[in-house]
Amino acid sequence: MKWNNVNYLTLPQQVEKNRKDILNIIGGGQGGGENVIDSIVVSVKKYGGDFSSLRKCFKTIKPTAKKPYIVELFEGTWNMNEEYANVWENPSFYGPTVPDYVTLKGIGDREKIIITASNGTDYMSTLNLANTASLENITVTADNMRYVIHDDFADNVQPDNFYYRNIINCVVRGENLRFASAYGAGVKQGAVYNFKNSKFINEGAGIWALSIHDNVDFDIESYIEIEGCEFISNNGNGYLVFGSMNAGVNGILTRVVIKGSKVNNLALTEEAPEIYGEGISFTVNGYGNQINSVQILNSDGLDYSSYVQLLGLSVADIVDNLTTENPWKPLSAYQGKLLNDAKANKEQEAWFTPTLINGWESTAGHPFQIRKTEFGQVVFRGSIKNGTTNEVAFELPAGYHVPNIITHPILIDNVVAGNTLYASAQYVVINGSGSVVVLDGISFYVD
Known about the structure:
Elements: H1 12-26, E1 40-44, H2 54-60, E2 69-74, E3 76-79, H3 80-83, E4 97-98, E5 102-107, E6 113-118, E7 127-129, E8 134-136, E9 139-143, E10 149-151, E11 163-168, E12 171-175, E13 181-186, E14 191-196, E15 199-203, E16 208-213, E17 222-227, E18 230-233, E19 239-244, E20 254-259, E21 262-270, H4 273-276, E22 282-287, E23 290-297, E24 308-312, H5 333-342, E25 361-362, E26 369-372, E27 377-381, E28 383-385, E29 392-395, E30 402-409, E31 411-412, E32 420-425, E33 427-431, E34 436-438, E35 443-445
Parallel strand pairs: 1-2, 2-5, 3-6, 4-7, 5-8, 6-9, 7-10, 8-11, 9-12, 10-13, 11-14, 12-15, 13-16, 14-17, 15-18, 16-19, 17-20, 18-21, 19-21, 20-22, 21-23, 22-24
Antiparallel strand pairs: 25-28, 26-27, 27-35, 28-34, 29-33, 30-32, 31-34, 32-33
């Protein structure tokens, strides 16, 4: 089963047609919205439910493809440290797992239905998701864990090698996480993911709100839909990251559609290219989003810019005034012309290279330069090389200072993992290891 015959375009009506074409090819199934099987419903309450703990519920129920379960979780704080106290220190315990063919559904206010965990081992997350497990209307939090939610356990034993994942109206919030992401997912072949009306928040030092990688040896494409979601981190990065492990294998791609969502930084990257190979195996399209920046970080020298098409807008979304407060509504061309005619500076300032120190120098043919736009946005381009990492690489001149500390992932010697740019006031530090640092696409606003 391949979906290459689906024509992926960006206008709203075309995006919706893409979705229908894909689901028609798959053929529907549990959790996908078509041919839904009646589920067995059980309740988890502090008092008076079928179960008084998630652990007891997960251990007792026996869901199957023909007998899926909806586990209704009522308001309260459900502490996984307490429920799994006897195995919490076990190095082979990865944290609680929502079983296959189970939808864990909160009943009540999602802000008052909290599943939480803290201080686990390096491999533990508050929740793990098996195959078609899904979440609805709950808040999941983690402090000093691997992830809040770890979603890399599907084993492709579903009929016809496909499975569904629905994350609907949820809050995923992490603090002091061991890994960079609040929600960490590994999509297997034939997956249909639906993230809707949810928030992904990484507090503390983390920069990735949601990260998804594909996996090796795909024979079937996968589909990810993100609608009405928000991606947040304390340092302002709020990254949504798609990491490729399957690039160039059988021409199989993972298709992503983003609609009406707020994404500060969208990144397509390679997942350990030295192990899994170079290239990008995700495509992204959609409409009605607020996306501040898009990065494609690949080391194979190919141009993947056509893999991201987010230009399509619904006519109903367009407003013809300057008073709307809805962040998802784009302005009409007429209002855009009025703003363009009224703007202060029509010519951008020239690019220039700040003074590099500690051995850093611009690369030949792709020199490092910066400039500030008329709207107060400082933009970087180019590369530097051969300097001392973990030391100040250059100082920003007056008028270019960073108003708040920023940490930004960067490509050093074609590797992203563990490499960051750190900037505070006028000082810019390259953290990581290697010699050639790519700084294209980094930007921030000054006061």
